[in-house]
C-alpha cells in the first residue's frame, strides 16, 4: 500500500501474505470517489464548516459514512468497520467526532445540503463526461429524452424522531420523495435528489414535486440555472404527480412528461365511445405484442379545458392475470389504467404502444428505491430532522 494525495490510501495488489486486509470490496468505492473527484469537491464545498485546528475534514467524515452505509452499516457507530482498516480507509474519525461533525453540519442544514449538492453535481458532470457515449444524457433529444423518475416511499421509525408522524399505511415515520435518472433495464439508476418529509406528508403535494424536480434538474450536467430544461428531459411519475399545478409548471419549463392519470367516474361510458378498431395492441416488457392488452387515446373524449395545452391522455385496458382480483375501476372484466403525456405521435418510438410501454417502465424506479433501502435508506438513524437529510445525501452518493 502507498499513500495517495486524496482521502484514501492507494491500494496495490501483491502475492505476499503480509498486506491482506478485510473489507477489500470497499476499494471499489474509494477508487470511485477518487475517480469522480468527489473527495476534493466535497472538501472545497464544506471548507467553511471545518474548524481551523480540526484533524478530520468534514468531507472525509461524510464520505466515510457513505462508504459505511454501502458496506451494510445502518448507524453512525458502524463507522468502526472502516476505522478497523486504516490501511484501506486512512484516518477515520472517532464516534464522538462523527457525532459532533454531523451536529455541526445539521446546525446549518440548508447551506450544507446546498454545498453537498454542488459537490455531487461536479462529480456527476465529471463521470458523465468520462462515460462519453455511455453517459445517460448522450444523444438526449425530444424523441429520446433523458428520463427522470419521481416516487415516494415510506421509511419507518421505531422511536420518536423529530417530525416522524403516522403514515397512510398505518405506520410511523417519514415519507421522502425521490428522483432517479433511469439508466434502462440493465442499469441500477442514479439518485438525483430527495426531499425528507414527515410521514403524514401528502402523496400529491404539488410544491414538493416541483421542489424535487428542480433539485433533480440542477444535478444534470447539461442544466444551466435560469434556463428551461426543454423536451430533452422527461419527468415520469405516478398519479401523485398529476396535479394541475405540477403539469402547468412542467409545461412552462418545456419539459416532457409522462404522468399517471386518475380516471374519471364515467370512465366506462367513455370507453364505450371508442370504436373497437381504434384500440391498438399493447406491448409487453420485451417490445412484443402483449396478448389481451390494448391502448387508445382518450384525449378527445375528456374536458381538457383546465389542463396544459398539448397534454394527451392515453388509456390501457387488459385482461387481468389469472387469479388477479378485479378492482372498482375495472370495466367489463378489463383492468383500466391511464397516463398523461405531452409527447406527440410521429416517428420511431412515439406510437401509442411505445408511449404506454415507456410509461409502464416507471416501475424500475420502485426497484431502485428497494435497492436504496437495502443500502441505508431503510432506517434514518438520527434524532434530529435536520440531521437525517445528511443521511439521505449520503445515500444519494451511493
Could you walk me through the main structural features you see in this protein, from its secondary elements to its overall organization?
With 398 residues, the protein is an alpha+beta fold. The protein contains 13 helices and twelve strands. The protein has helices spanning 26-36, 38-45, 58-70, 80-83, 86-89, 95-106, 109-131, 206-219, 244-252, 267-272, 352-360, 363-377, 388-396, and strands at 146-152, 155-156, 165-166, 172-174, 177-181, 190-195, 233-237, 256-260, 280-283, 289-297, 312-318, 335-341. Strands 6-5-1-7-8-12-11-10-9 form a nine-stranded mixed beta sheet, with helices on both faces. A three-stranded antiparallel beta sheet has the order 2-4-3, with no helix packed on it. The longest helix is centred in the first third of the chain and has 23 residues, at 109-131. The two termini are 25 Å apart. 37% of the residues are buried.
